[in-house]
Structure formats: C-alpha cells, structure tokens
Task: inverse folding
C-alpha cells in the first residue's frame, strides 16, 4: 500500500530553520506531484507548497514565499521542505501529500491529493 512518512519536525526559536522530509513508498513517486500542508490548533488545514512530478515547477502560499523551499529527489522517493526564517505563526502539524492523478503540475487544494502522511509537529517559539 502507499505510505508517506514525514520527519524533521521539532522545536525551534523564531528566525531559525528546519528541514522536513517525506519518503513515499508503494507508488511510482516520480509520476506524481507532491504537496505540503499544515494545520494549526483550531484552524483548517492550509496549503504550504507544492511541486510538480518532475520537480521543475513549484508553488507556495503567500505566507511562506521567500522563506520556504520545496524540493524532491525522484531517485530517493523523497520530497523536502526547507523552512527558513521561521515565525511563531508557522507552528502547526505539517503533512505531505501525493497527488491523486499522475503527471499534474501540483495543486493548492487538499482535495487534489489522495495519500497523506501522519504529520510532523513544528513548534516555533517567540
């Protein structure tokens, strides 16, 4: 079965950096766009970043543009999220997700993704 496993979360001070990683198994990773979403307590899940199946196109939420970078390694079946300049409002559980349909560009909408990881907690202290 398809599995997504995130790692790399933790506690960091404001202004610091973290790198999240997600490894995918059970499907042809290189054929699917990938996304990162996050959910803070009491809030809805929101889009953070996406990358197309080949890695040439990336998309970001306005709130993280210029601070976060999404990348993928199709040889290792991994997608990473480099987070710099972290702010307390970035505190959330972060989820990676795999697109429902192959060879798409990537989507801002959670409904476009059919497989999700279990999430990794990121906490940014002020």
Result:
């Amino acid at each position: 079965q398809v599995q997504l496993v995130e790692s790399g979360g933790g506690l960091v001070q404001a202004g610091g950096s973290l790198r999240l990683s997600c490894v995918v198994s059970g499907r042809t990773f290189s054929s699917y766009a990938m996304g990162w979403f996050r959910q803070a307590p009491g809030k809805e899940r929101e889009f953070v970043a996406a990358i197309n199946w080949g890695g040439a196109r990336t998309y970001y939420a306005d709130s993280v543009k210029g601070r976060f970078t999404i990348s993928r390694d199709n040889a290792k079946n991994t997608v990473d999220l480099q987070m710099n300049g972290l702010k307390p409002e970035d505190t959330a559980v972060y989820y990676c997700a795999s697109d429902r349909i192959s060879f798409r560009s990537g989507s801002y909408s959670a409904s476009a993704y059919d497989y999700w990881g279990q999430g990794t907690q990121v906490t940014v202290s002020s």
